[in-house]
Amino acid sequence: MPRPDVSEERRPQIIAAARQVFIRKGYRKTTMPDVAREAGLSVGGVYWYFKSKDEIVAAILDQCFQDDLEALKILLDSAASASARVRSFVVRYAETYSNYEWLNPIGIQFYAEAIHDPTVRLFIQKYLAHYRQALVTLIEQGIQRGEFRPVAPVDTANALLGLEEGLALLIVADPEGVDWKKSFQTGVEILLAGLTIPLTEK
Predict the structure, then answer these.
(1) Fewer CB atoms inside 10 Å of the end CB: C or N, the chain?
(2) Is-contact 87 188, C-beta < 8 A?
(3) Which residues pair with 148 in a beta bridge?
(4) Are the beta carbons of 59 and 50 closer than 8 angstroms?
(5) How confident is the model at residue 139, as a pLDDT?
(6) What are the pLDDT digits (tens) for 92-102?
(7) Residue 167: helix, strand or coil by DSSP?
């Protein structure tokens, strides 16, 4: 009898196991043997699918990133005002953040690896480039429609990205001092207030 092909099941199995170990031990203290034990596999079996724990974290983050990018792409095709679409994205992001809150400390440590690891840096840069471009397109649409002031779209997109990523860092360093959801929504509203052209000026 031929052995069943379980390759499609293994990656999600390993990722799920890694998630549990990351939550329990943290990113830095987790080892590939830890993940293998949690998954009920040999260490070699885990290495067959992932060469390092960085690759596992990248796979987890990639799914989160793709969800965010898909939501942004949908908003780009919407007929709503640019401000309304930015707010819709913020509301969705804030709502889904709690589902991935466990990942935030791991993501911050993974980001720190970009200082030393070109592969990690390239992965993050690729994600940021797609995310930035989606935001740039949305901002440009607002400018073209006369809703937003003629700002520099890339700089404005980076300001929004910086607000999001910076708050993620703050909540890891000072969880008691940061209400991520309120701070993110407040920051975006301040940004939109400066971007939006009031009706009295049109």
Answers:
(1) N
(2) yes
(3) 196
(4) yes
(5) 95
(6) 877 777 777 77
(7) helix
Task: Tell me the torsion sign for CA atoms 46, 52, 55, 59.
Answer: positive
Asked if 38 and 49 touch (Cβ cutoff 8 Å), the reply is: no
The per-residue pLDDT for range 23-51, each reduced to its tens digit, is 888 888 899 999 999 999 999 999 999 99
Structure tokens at 110: 């993974």
Does the domain made of 1-51 have the CATH classification 3.40.50.1100? no
> Rg of the chain's alpha carbons, rounded to an integer?
20
Strand, coil or helix: 148:
strand
Cα 129–Cα 135–Cα 138 angle in degrees, nearest 5:
140
Q: What is the pLDDT of residues 82-95, one digit of tens each?
A: 999 989 888 887 77
Query: What is the CA angle 122-126-178, rounded to 5?
Result: 95
The yes-or-no answer to whether 1-51 and 54-201 have a common fold is: no
Tell the residue number behind the tokens 């940061």, with chain if given: 178
The rounded distance, in Å, linking the Cα atoms of 98 and 95 is 6
Q: Assign domain 54-201 to a CATH class.
A: mainly alpha
- Would you give the DSSP letter of residue 196? B
- Hey, where are the domains in the chain? 1-51, 54-201
- Residue at 2: amino acid letter: P
Beta bridge partners of residue 196, listed in sequence order: 148
What are the two backbone dihedrals, phi and then psi, of residue 196, each rounded to the nearest 5 degrees?
Answer: -75, 135
Residue 4 clears pLDDT 50, i.e. is over it: no
Residues constituting the chain: 202
- Least confident stretch, 14-28, 53-67, 87-101, 176-190: 87-101
